[in-house]
Design brief:
The protein is 39% helix and 9% strand. A six-stranded mixed β-sheet has the order 1-5-2-6-4-3. Helix 2 runs antiparallel to helix 5. The chain has eight helices and six strands. By secondary structure, the chain is α+β, with helices and mostly antiparallel strands.
Length: 228
């Protein structure tokens, strides 16, 4: 009962903030509340059912952008080069590490072979002949549910049917295990915004300040210490 009351208060606060957030961003904002527990995968499917645009930008509340990104230019790049199916905004430098290097958790294939394929795939994206791209991109075998831009049809047809097979697991983990993107990159088209070694585009504001989970912007860290 206490958790339900706290959640209801949280929703009331979000509703009160919507007008100010809309004025700040210039966007039309709508609060959607799922009537049942859906976990992350179910909540994504619920939100996706309300999308009517050909592209969608998925942004997490605790992953603000630290670099200026013209999202419409990224959309134009995706239209110009259809290989860009899912563009992720990285929260670390664009380096071949962790999932980008093939370090997946529960793949049913050789991890050494997976790493070999992932590292061979990793690199700067070369646009099609005659295509003009406004930004640079990095090929990766890693699908991440963090801030990303994708075609709505791609999310509905390729991502959600996979992640809903195991809604209790993180979508990233299910996609890595089920899709073997390093072998199917033409189908899943996973890329990172900007070229290899570029600076991070987002940061994780870990308000709980748990060790090893996320990074805090310096001024946010100072503020949180004062609050605590």
């Amino acid at each position: 009962a206490r958790a339900a009351a706290r959640y209801a208060e949280y929703l009331r606060r979000v509703r009160r903030l919507l007008a100010a957030a809309a004025q700040c961003t210039g966007l039309t904002l709508r609060l959607l509340v799922r009537p049942t527990v859906g976990r992350l995968a179910g909540n994504l499917a619920f939100a996706l059912a309300h999308v009517s645009t050909p592209f969608l930008l998925k942004v997490e509340h605790d992953h603000p952008f630290t670099r200026s990104v013209d999202v419409l230019s990224v959309v134009r790049d995706m239209i110009a080069d259809e290989r860009l199916k899912c563009v992720r905004f990285n929260r670390r430098e664009n380096r071949c590490l962790r999932c980008d290097s093939g370090e997946f958790g529960r793949l049913r294939v050789s991890k050494a072979y997976t790493r070999q394929l992932a590292r061979k795939l990793w690199g700067a994206h070369a646009p099609r002949l005659g295509a003009f791209l406004r930004y640079n991109y990095t090929r990766t075998s890693c699908f991440s549910d963090m801030n990303h831009l994708a075609a709505t049809s791609f999310c509905r047809d390729e991502v959600m049917p996979v992640v809903l097979r195991a809604p209790w697991r993180p979508p990233e983990a299910v996609m890595q295990d089920e899709c073997w993107i390093a072998r199917n990159h033409a189908r899943y088209g996973t890329y990172i915004w900007d070229g290899p070694n570029a600076l991070a585009a987002i940061v994780h504001i870990d308000a709980a300040m748990r060790a090893g989970v996320g990074e805090l912007l310096p001024h946010v860290r100072v503020w949180l210490r004062g609050v605590h």
